[in-house]
Design brief:
heterodimer, A: Dimethylsulfoxide Reductase, domain 2, B: Alpha-Beta Plaits, 4-stranded mixed β-sheet, two-stranded antiparallel sheet, 21% helix
Chain lengths: 725, 247
Amino acid sequence: MKKKISRRDFLKLAGASAATGAALTGCGPSSRFVVREPYTQMPEYALIGESTFYATTCRECAAGCGLIVRTFQGRAIKVEGNKNNPVNLGKTCARGQATLQGLYNPDRVTDPLNQGRRKTLGTDGMNWDDAIKVVSDALANTDPAGIGFLLGMAPDHLFDLVSDLTAGIGAPAPVRYGALSAFEARATLVKAAENVLGQSGLPFFDLANAELTFSFGANFLETWLSPVAYTRGFSKMRKQGKRGYLVQFEPRMSQTGAKADEWIPVRPGTEGMVALALGKLIAESKKQTVPRAFVNVDVKAVAKESDVDEEKLHYLADLFADADRALAIPGGAALGQSNGLGTAEAVLALDALANNFGQPGGVFLSPAAPTEDNVHRPASLQEMAVFINKMNTGEIKTLLIHGVNPVFELPKSLGFEAALKNVPLVISFSTFPDETAILSDYIFPDHHGLESWGYQRVATGTSQSTLSGAQPVVSPFYNTQSTADVLLAASAIAGGKLASVLPFKDEVEYIQAQLIPLIENKDANFNAGEINSFSAYFQQFGGWWTNEAALLAPTQNTLNETLSVESPTYEGEGDFFLVPFVSPVLGEAGANKPSLQEVPDPTTTVMWNSWVEINPETAHEFGIKSGDIIKIVSNVGVIETSAYLYPAIRPDTIAIPFGQGHKAYGRYAAGRGVNPFDLLGLKFNAAGDIAFAGMKVQIIKTGKKFELARMESEIGVYGEGLGEE
Amino acid sequence: MKPIDLNIIGAKGAIAEEAEGKWGMAIDEDLCTGCQACVAACAMENNISFVGEEDAAYGRTMHWIRIERFWEGEYPDVRTTSFQPMLCQQCGHAPCEPVCPVFATVHSQADELNLQVYNRCVGTRYCGNNCPYQVRAFNWRDYERPEPLNNQLNPDVTVRQRGVMEKCTFCIQRIHQAEDTAKSEGRELQDGEFDPACAQACPADAIVFGRVDDPDSKVSQLSRQKRGVKHLEDLATLPRITYLKES
């Protein structure tokens, strides 16, 4: 059957199962996409001058926010939040808004390429039949044990498909990674939940109903776990009858810290000790017996080590003890320390002390995902180190990479770039010419997220069990192919075991097969008797979710076990603690979107570049002025960037945003700023997360100057701009 | 500065007539997290150009809305002032209007909004100089938008060129579309039926938009709160945006 089925035909047919089955038989991959035709033949739902709206899922991070994309005569015009999706309820963040500049980015990979590990993006185009043959041969001719799949945090349907593929042929399971998961210290949080809450998984913090919240490093208004959902929680927390009060413990005031009522600048790595000391004082304040968890702590010693004086600790403990609904949240840089796991446990123990498990304004376990709940967790950096070691020893013969840019998103000291040279065949499925794609043998570009089918399990952020659905909102702009379709076609050509593992015609059929178990559950946002209607509704609603809250109450209570948080140890030598943080605006992959580059950073108002934050007092001591280029030296690397005199950072700490410092990734990202991952040494905490905020570094004045583009005026800020100080 | 007593200068009657306005906003600074979603949403909806690092450093970004914050105090008792979204206040008595020599900056009687008529504008920038809120953006160049980024341009919003002043319109294209829809369905426009791009995106629900001439609308109810203030009220510009201070 030669006739290609356009998407609108497909949608027409979707309701009638027999017709769909017949019409699609024999079609190759991606036949479900639109064939571009002149607009003289208008689809019946398209009226000139009227917009068409499609529900899909955002792929700028893995939170799984629902989007409604306005399209106008085949072009995507504007992204809005999906009001029905329980994660974001109609809202979006800045990164979600800018996703269209990824879709229409002038620097996308337009065709499958024989890249040949050139220094710049190759021009040696291929046709897709040859490309699929390359993948097919790679899968068929490599010993299954030598096949390595490295995937990003989204999309989940591809992860499931690859998991089925690798399990079927006896290859190692795919490894998922994303820089955000490292900065969130997800592995640590999950492990702490297992130890303290009695179940491994991401805890859900009911910020919306908390009267008092102690946040230990959790930057939940920026990039942490599900920022849009947590921002909604924050907003409700402020609006409730008695305005909620937020205290933020962190060495560098984040955007979240800026919204807090009190900012406590603790010494990096001592957050957990502070939590334990507070636990003891809170119990005393409540006139309770101090639970065994907190008995061993020496409050005086903690005050000295953390740089929070004893009086302040007493004040905070009284505050917590007197609150009706008190909540403590561990996250971010507090867990990215050598003692991070202990810190996470100590903070969760405060929740146990507040007796808020399963209570409004307290701690819950996120609802189980609708399908295959056990596969959420990304690899910790320690697991990535094991993977890279396999690359170096030649164990991995064929590496297939999708949805992640490890050359940029891993610490340089892990040596991913060098390890790539030891892998005989590297295939990238990247939509953009990122650093990893450039160093690959082949680039077989996937569609952009807005051109793709798929689904994303919602790991946390809502009380309902949610599967966000994705569908193409426009036809593919370039000669790209869905990676799922490429893998299915490649397996089919390879024949034998490969073909039998994935007996699916195309990506959509695979997704439908995964949705079938959901049809049974009738207590959901829609019901349908059979899969074709079900998947049509799934697209229309932008996903599937339960009507009732499915939060779980933690069962365990560890207050009777002794907790201890050892003193932090720091990697490297130097006078300054280094706190890298994810740029709240750019996230891990926003640097190639020009409008996002021009959105000012919330706390510094800097645009288009990197900077290093230094306390003005310290800067004065070192003779550093705003805009002076500073060399930052760690035990593994050196970077140079402009100084921003940041009043809200400890004098012994410097901070650098992550998000810039690309060497490739298109014209708007490449050659701009620096990557703090170049500085990180390899120290891990007990859960395998890297101690990214546990570094000590030197700073050296270079004598060079580069004025940052910032929205704020420097005049009047600490006497600058008014002639010599 | 001492507030001007409008009774003394004899302007009370004239101003009171226009004081109410039609469309307005209430922005809750206690809720605004400074996340910049509104800034990005506005840029995407209104075809706002990006200017690049060098021009951005000269303060030539084209944003129609920005988030202001200032530092207060010194370490360790340092904090930022509340994040404050600043956009055109759609003043009832707009200082930008009388200075325009070509009537490019005019008041719309129908919508009670400040209009910027791009094809009248000759780029004197008097309006920008006279705006006490500094919310007008001037096109210093024809900013490049390389193919295929232009595919995303919103067909409902004019693309501006060099030498033209621009500013927030309260997403007038959305206002008109909602009004047309209501009219064609033979009904009144409901409060909350539509939002401008910034309010629609705001994850904290800090920006609320609606009819300020309807005392029951959500925006009117919020604006009446005790913590509501109008910026630079002393200038008698009659701003249509009420800011709710951090409590």
